Fold:
Amino acid sequence: MGTEPSLLRVPIASGGTAARLKRHPVDTIPHHHPAPAEPAQPAAPAGGTQTATLNIEGMTCASCSNFVEKALNRTPGVQRATVNLASEKATIEYLPGQIDRAGLKAAVEQAGYGVHEPAAPASPNVLASDQELDARKAQAYQKLKRRFQVAVALAVVIMPLSMLMLWPALMSRISMPLLNYVLLALTLPVLFYSGREFYVSAWNGFKHRTASMDTLIAVGTGAAFGYSLAATLIPHWFMQHGIMPEVYYDTTATIIALILLGKVLESRAKTKTSAAIKALMGLQAKTARVVRGGQEVDVPIEDVVIGDEVLVRPGEKVATDGVLLAGHSAVDESMLTGESLPVEKKEGDAVFGATLNKTGSFRFRVSKVGSETMLAQIVKLVEEAQGSRAPIQQLADKVSAVFVPVVIMIAISTFILWFDFAPDASRLPLALVNFVAVLIIACPCALGLATPTAIMVGTGKGAEHGVLIRNAEALEKAEKVTTVLLDKTGTITRGEPSVTDFLPTAGANPAQLLPRLAAVERQSEHPLAEAVVRYADAQGAALLPATGFRAFEGRGAGATVDGQAYLLGNRRLLDEHQVAVSAATEQAATRLLSEAKTVLYAATGGQVVALIGVADTVRESSRAAIQALQAEGIEVVMMTGDNPQTAAKVAEQVGITRYFAEVLPADKAGKVKQLQAEGRTVAMVGDGINDAPALAQADIGLAMGGGTDVAMEAAGITLMRSDLQGVVTAMDLSRQTMRTIKQNLFFAFIYNTLGIPIAAGLLYPITGWLLSPMLAAGAMALSSVSVLTNSLRLRGYKRTA
Amino acid sequence: MDTTQIIVTLVGVGLLGFVGWFFFLAPHRVAAAVSTSAGIQQVDIVVKGGYSPNVIEVEHGKPVQLNFYRDEENSCSEELLLPDFNIRRELAPFKTTAIELLPQQAGTFEFTCGMHMLRGSLVVK
Structure:
């Protein structure tokens, strides 16, 4: 991580070793080879060589990579090859006239290794790595289904045959031993085809002195089958000891069929838990229309490099991250931010890969590719969150660590007790049945699945709504929050100035004036000027040309429009240009200032023609979001650097009763501490740039990224949407996820603590209940499936507001 | 109590002790990482009903690459978790999955399968 991958390069081997073009065992070549490591060189432009990168499969150690490298270097047409074991990639310089990519692939295959050609080839990209794994999983699922079908088909024959004894009239005509042999023949395939995996896995575990779910199933069904086998082969021995030679083939077959049913359902449900992240990965564009040498060419996304110019037409996906060069459009970014309204894009704005261009065509310069893009970062963050451990899981983890051996011990104790205390004639079958039932009903899977599945669904769902949860702990913290502290700027308000008042003085014509002022400001890059331009655009003001633009540092700007010189700026600008300010104008300006607004003066011909009030405005969604939080019993507190009057005004506007005014940036963390000292669990919401210490101090920090940086260190949760709705979603989702986890854990614990004693026959002395191992198998299959299903309910989560 | 019962009881109690000893007191298979010339500490781990080796010793501050070769198809071991490093990875059967991480602090970090049945630990020195 973070360092150069090791690129092992070995000199081209001389002849004589060529006969060894076979895959050699891993350890036959010493791991320490004399060749020093050298960094790979980029493609040499001279001599017309080309560079190809191949994904090599099957290399397990450094000697394998050396071997592949030698094989490639020996291939005619190859100038130079380096193989990196860590990334499983070979970088090959070759002469295109002598060999091509297919030839290189053949050379690697001849050496005994595979070349993996993904549909979206080689790039160090989290987005494209899982296709093969998916294929294998689909294959495994098909196999599992077939094994299940075979088990069911045979079990439905075995069951009625085993029950023939219920009809004495029939039984008298059939030879009992013969029937047992028929049942045995039917059960064998169930055991050795359908149930094979359980025994193999239990055996593998046994060799490592570990025990898993499969151990329980293997021992349980093995015991039932072994007993039945003995009763079939040597019934006389049983008779001599006064025991009916009963067989449990139906039990064996049914247990395996039911457990496989559970596995089929489980594996179906499990793929759904990661559906959200798969969907995110699938969003990446496959090709990009790049301008190369003045021509538009469609190239695969992997060949797009930083600095390329890419064209995007309406209805097309933006290929990767970049900065808009020309054109303007509205882009649907909902897949990344959860924001349903398209975002207006103009020159200089950032565009992101995987978003959908709606209205206009534009051209952008690529600034990020592959794993650097916003989409890849989101995927990485969600993946990391799904790999994190939730503190709530600790108990379950401790229990599952000792679960299987303990269950085996309980089962053995059950056997002993039944054998010692049951009536002589039935003690062996009773001991056996209860022994098997205990092993089969115990379900460590439910415990193991309870937390992670809910976290996976929850974090995936969050990403869909533009709420990126850093880890499971953050989710747990967010659930406990009692107070949300909002940094006003950038959260409740937009964090950028907008025009709130446009006040032409008496005699001025606003319809004529606004386009002219906008023309002046269009030339300026000042945020206040941008606010005026945005306002004019929103009003539908015409676009006019301005000439003779001049910026007055710290004061404003001036230009000539329609032959008239306009000045736009602060009071100092007017004073410098000897513009008179009337009493009425003075009054209006004072009023605007008292409302904590910035005042822009517009003047022409030595006269003030308009006043423009500019302020940071409250987002439309803020009030609703704050109310939604309050409705959930969370207290919302605001802090701001503004004076108390302005703070009070904003607080009132959005329905906040408690606020801190005149908070210096350095004191933000102190305010969080103050709230924490009151015994509150505080969530701090900020823009993530200026308030990192406060975010870190809070029990949980929520950064409103606004689409800039996904992985903000100080924040437990990053909100891609730039409004407070994201906070509501985060709080809501964390509560629902935690509720699901608690339900799951409760169910898993209760299921096992009730199920195991019942299966052991604890209720027998009181109620006479014994649990059939077949019922136990059914219960066990359903228990893990119900935990999964409960987690999947989170997929139905809808944003409340 | 007849003789059979006594025998069954004695054998059963013996088995109890055996199961406890066998699973809980299993010895660790320790392996120290081998550093490549590029400074990456590599360890090959076979996943088959358990992790062998199951105690991996590495040094802190240097990148670590754990090559998990999953030599079975059974679903128990299909996921690998290294929660302290926020890693959850699916291991493809009969393939090597390389997991890269950079341990910054010394300590013992557990790695487990998806359901916490199989366990191993990464000891960072």
Remarks:
- Chain A is about 45% helix and 20% strand.
